[in-house]
Amino acid sequence: LGVYALTLRGRITDVEGRLVAALTRLDQSERALDASTREATVVRTRLQVVTAPDAIDLRLAGQAIAPRAQARAFVSRSRGVLFAASNLPPLPANRVYQVWYLTPGAPVSAGLLRPDADGNATVSFDVAAGVAPAGMAVSIEPDGGVPAPTGAIYLASTQ
To answer: pTM of the entire structure?
Structure first.
């Protein structure tokens, strides 16, 4: 009976170890699934902007201060904006790139972006009610952004 009890204890310990390993793998799989679901949602949202019937395609060219920079924006008043930039110069300390809607009145902030180490950034923005963007521009502003452009324009739409 003692030998049998020891054998069972060994089996239980082995099963418990395998159970812990399986639960760990399950937890990792659930986290990976959650991340994939979030990523799929982002991709689906961005695709809706690009394929929106009211989407306009804006190309932004680097200005004198950043001639290699370029960007493209798909603007849909009904579904938002998909904005992708490349070759942006590194940001100075305590500064951020601010994206602007160019309207018949004053520029309106679309949002902020921070490029990666290679100067690339892809972001989505909403279009506020009553804003009719005729173009877009990008400037460097203090962290947190400002209500109107104060810095040099790094990118501006060409159409």
So the answer is: 0.76
